[in-house]
Amino acid sequence: MTGTPGQATVAGAGVRADGVRVRYGDRTVLDGVDLTVGRGELVALVGRSGSGKSTLLRVLAGLEEPAAGRVTLAGAAGVAFQEHRLLPWRRVAANVGLGLPRAGRTGAVRDALAAVGLADRADAWPTHLSGGQAQRVALARALVRRPPVLLLDEPFGALDALTRRHSQDLLVRLHARHGCATLLVTHDPAEAVRLAGRVLVLDAGRVVAEVAADGRDAHARVLDLLGVHPPAAIPGGAAHGSGGPGRVPAGPY
Ligand SMILES: Nc1ncnc2c1ncn2[C@@H]1O[C@H](COP(=O)(O)OP(=O)(O)OP(=O)(O)O)[C@@H](O)[C@H]1O
């Protein structure tokens, strides 16, 4: 253990950021971010709205240049976002196989779609899919090259609660099977604690804390770090929020 928030203890980094800085005009959005995601790890990144989570993910994905600092990946990353970003004029299989070399493409696409439970929708148009199915196709597209690194920005944020739960379970299974270093940006502390091994907290452009997700009271700890405090208990009454491993309603963070 290095004792530094964000630094994995496992040997061999899948993702590594050292001193990453991003400025927009005179605003510093990332202020020296250090983090490591080890091979085979699933790490969640939480933070208040505007703390820089999506910016960091874009920098890690190589979609944006940092003003300073360094990003090292074990190889090309698979990426998925809150919006599925499928091309509506291409069928599902063509979306998944976009940019793959012709040799082996059919088999790779078939395997990726089977892995997300959509082998029978290869010929469908994206507009004919449900939101959850489209997001699973986006996951298949992210995984089709068997990347060593998976970067996910709120991939389940737009889904209804039940579909979200199924999709979360699917991610855990896919992660266990592929073992890619996975960084999951999420607004949802309950999702972070349920899916990840470690939860990193981003605040004002820095990783300020790390919580072991299997630790006692991990959910409450993450909420606390986000500045969300439980309301006074309602005697004899049910709390108005639920669904997470805490007593605390999920609020807007
Ligand atoms: N292209 C841009 N130009 C200028 N400012 C930007 C740009 N992209 C993001 N920002 C600003 O940078 C800050 C961080 O944005 P970012 O989207 O990374 O936050 P976030 O933590 O992902 O927020 P949310 O949880 O609301 O999605 C915000 O204040 C945002 O307004």
UniProtKB/TrEMBL annotation:
Residue ranges annotated for the ABC transporter domain, each copy included: 15-229
Assigned keywords, A-Z: ATP-binding, Cell membrane, Membrane, Nucleotide-binding, Translocase, Transport
InterPro entries, per the entry: AAA+_ATPase, ABC_transporter-like_ATP-bd, ABC_transporter-like_CS, ABC_transporter_ATP-bind, P-loop_NTPase
Species: Cellulomonas fimi (strain ATCC 484 / DSM 20113 / JCM 1341 / CCUG 24087 / LMG 16345 / NBRC 15513 / NCIMB 8980 / NCTC 7547 / NRS-133)
Protein name: ABC transporter related protein
Record SUPFAM superfamilies: P-loop containing nucleoside triphosphate hydrolases
Example GO molecular function: ATP binding
Pfam families named among the record's database cross-references: ABC_tran
Domain of life the protein comes from: Bacteria
